[in-house]
Amino acid sequence: MIVRLTGILSDVMEESVVLERDGEAREVLVPRAAVGTLAGRRGTEVTLHTFEVIEGGQNSAYQTPRLIGFISAEDKAFFLRFIGVKGMGVRKALKALSEPSRRIARWIQDGDVKALATLSGVGPRGAQVIVAELKGKLDGMALPESAEGEVLKTAWSLAQRDALTVLTGWGDSRADAERYLAEAAKQGAAFDHAEDWVRAAYRIKAGQPAM
Fold this sequence. Notes:
By secondary structure, this protein is of the alpha+beta class. Among the domains are: 4-71, CATH 2.40.50.140; 158-205, no CATH class. The chain has helices at residues 32-39, 73-82, 90-96, 101-110, 113-117, 123-134, 145-152, 158-169, 174-186, 194-205, and strands spanning 4-12, 16-21, 24-29, 45-55, 64-70. Strands 1-2-3-5-4 form a 5-stranded mixed beta barrel. Strand 4 and strand 5 (64-70) form a beta hairpin. The longest helix is centred in the last third of the chain and has 13 residues, at 174-186.
């Protein structure tokens, strides 16, 4: 089993990335929260903590091996707990984890069903199941209060706030829109107009540099 993979990050897509090493290119599925972070590291060497799954099932005519990758070992450990929840398969979990795993763990620890319900494909009933099955079982994976405050603290400019309104109005979740804009700013974007931030955000979403 491949538990860790290092290579040059050659491509970032909506649900996966490609790592190249020694003439081989491997596609690795990643959580939604990791896409924005990795988009800014294209062309550099990265290490992902991985595990393998077989898609298709025992009775399927086609069984496809897949690598699932995470930026940290802690993210991987949380994911393995998360997919143990009733009704939470690998693909569903990858889409649901659009927030940092430690923030989601905090929501679970606090029993914050409303916040959990905003995750893609979860909903109120799914959020209740997650809390019922995982609360008190995450072994310190949750952010402490002070740390979470630092993660959530973002000073948006007026142009960025207007861009957030546009992005969410066009269908992106608030969490995704904030992540795209934060990554654009991290790459050096400093625009005075909302439309420029929107364009930069959609470049990040597409796995391209912000500028």
